[in-house]
Amino acid sequence: MPVYLESNRPRRPGQPTWPGAKPRAGDQASIAIGLVNNMPDAALEATEHHFLSLLDAASGGIPVHLSLYALPGIPRTGAGGRHIEDFYSSTEVLWDRQLDALIVTGREPLTPNLNDEPYWDSFTRVLDWARENTHSTVWSCLAAHAAVLHMDGIGRIKSSVKHSGIFECTRLLDHPLMAGTPATARVPHSRWNGLPEEELTARGYSVLTRAADTGVDTFVKQEKSLFVFFQGHPEYESNTLMLEYRRDAGRYLRGEASAYPSLPRAYFDPATVEALLAIEGRAVSNPSKKLLGEVLTLLRAREVENTWHSTAASIYRNWLEYICAQKDAAVYSRSRETDSGSGLT
Fold first, then answer.
1. Above pLDDT 90, what percent of the chain?
2. At 68, which helix (H) or strand (E)?
3. Which helix (H) or strand (E) holds 146?
């Protein structure tokens, strides 16, 4: 059963397509999910596709209707601004809508303190709404950091190096979200910051998976809504880390960054690693924009195997089944209340 993208506006020529929303038949198994996409302009459509594809792989026979939302306060320009205007609704309309779940993405921060970000107030309003009005919400990467800061005052900690690559993450708890996943799974990460595990557990969060040298991977907090937090990116496609590495190398070679990016861990084949390290050595000793052409040429010919997709699809399948179960329970509870009020038992 495909995922349907809720949009009344057709794609412009050249844009990726996805099945449009079909009329809902009132099937209780149908799930309405909002994607609050906070990624920068250049990554908007790629991020849409990441989550559409992953939900499609996970959905099985569950119809999923996905709608797109944007936070007020995030600066947009050019094509990104037009894309938001054409295909997204403001999160300000959420208060009057009925959604079963949200997925909230992160983005590169503009300020040292997350609560100084220009979209902070609108972000926290979405979070407070989601706590009371969704069965579950996924918080991805920076959104996870911002959420726990708002909810419990837990600040993130910056590492001396960027955690980029594919990391072996060990399952710590037999939570329903992890059903059918291996004891150790490979997960993409791309972040400078992490969260202290001891503070999370002290504040009622359950850590589900952890990498030995990079800390917490996936964690949850159960209140009225089940909040699911990913510090990693199970939704990433095979070439996403490659594109990020290419972007960061370009920033250095154009003089926009002070450090050349580290190679994503356990990602490229040995021959590619050797060739990229050789370019890096030349770039650090004598930076030149011309070297970016060599990086682009080398990476254009490389393909990376996606070794994490099956685990990611299993986790999201479990998530969708949890939402269905919560919807069924809510309908049953309302039915019991109606019968009780009418004197039927």
1. 80
2. strand 64-70
3. helix 142-152
| Active site (catalytic) residues | 141, 233, 235
Q: Where in the chain is the domain with CATH 3.40.50.880?
A: 3-237+308-337
pLDDT at 23: 44
In the three-class reduction of DSSP (H, G, I as helix; E, B as strand; rest coil), residue 83 is classed as: helix
Burial-class residue 39 by CB neighbours within 10 Å (0-12, 13-18, 19+): buried
Distance CA 84, CA 256 (A): 27
Cα 230 → chain centroid: 7
Q: Which two tokens stand for residue 164?
A: 């980029």
> Interior CA angle at 232 toward 227 and 233, to 5°?
95
69-85 pLDDT, tens digit per residue, is 999 989 898 999 999 99
pLDDT of residue 345: 44
Model confidence over 223-247: pLDDT tens digits?
A: 999 999 999 999 999 999 999 999 9
> In the chain, pLDDT over 70 holds for what percent of residues?
89
Give CATH superfamily name and number for 3-237+308-337. Class I glutamine amidotransferase (GATase) domain (3.40.50.880)
Q: Is 287 exposed, middle or buried (0-12, 13-18, 19+ CB in 10 A)?
A: middle
